[in-house]
Specification:
2 domains, Arc Repressor Mutant, subunit A, mainly alpha, 7 helices, 2 strands
Amino acid sequence: MITQKMKYALKALLALADEAASPSPTPLTIEAVAKRSDTPKRFLEHILLDLRNAGLISSIRGRSGGYLLIKPPGEISISELLRLIDGPIAPLPCLSRRAYQRCEDCANEESCRIRKAFAEIFWSYLLLIDSLTLADMLRSDSVAGQVYGA
């Protein structure tokens, strides 16, 4: 399950991507991002800082300043964004690509039935989530419709 912080990050990026796709894009103030994304301003400050530090957006100071999407939506991986905002996405630490840890109570990973069961589910999930980008979310047809044939 994704956190509320991740939902806010996605909403903010979608608002910035919509502005970037407009005929004459301009930087959006934090107030404008909050309004367009229906996100509380107090949460956005930290989220936008994380997104800026990750090189996804830039901030411009001054009277006509604000935030701009600087990375193309097709290059913004939802799985990377999940990891940036929420941390490791694996259901077990022994399945994590970037934050691997052996489970404390596991005697043998090779024979662990819990690990095997969750590994199959997780790898299927990774195939889908690793291929999803912000550009996919911007399309008018739903991502879920593509996945589930709706």
